[in-house]
Amino acid sequence: MTWDLARGEGFLPHTSLAELKRLMRAETNAKPRLRLLIAVHRKQGKPLDEIAESCSVPRRTVHGTIQRFQERGVDAANAAKKEGRPPQLSKRQRVR
Fold first, then answer.
1. How far apart are CA 33 and CA 39, in angstroms?
2. Per-residue model confidence (pLDDT) at position 80
3. Rg for the chain (alpha carbons), in Å?
């Protein structure tokens, strides 16, 4: 699926720049904070290469992060929950 990577006010249109900055300041974990920083730069209208250089991450990381935000909104700052591998033992076997 190809995405038109919007920037400026077109990026996260229902979230203000001030709100993104507030969320970034409140975040204590490094990865979500970096993702929010990338979102702030994109909301300011900066191109991918400039964001990648200022955040010291590969361009591909910036592109993927922006796509995540466009798909999931502000919730993309946090990792999606994954179910993991199914258990090999049945519930009955695990009880014993």
1. 10
2. 76
3. 17
pLDDT of residue 1: 44
Tell me the residue ranges of DSSP E strands in the chain. Answer: none
Mean of pLDDT values over 76-91: 85
pTM of the model: 0.80
CA dist., res. 12 & res. 27, Å (int): 19
CA distances from 81 to 46, 69, 75, 84 (A): 30, 16, 12, 9
DSSP code for 73: G
Round the average pLDDT of the chain to a whole number and report it: 90
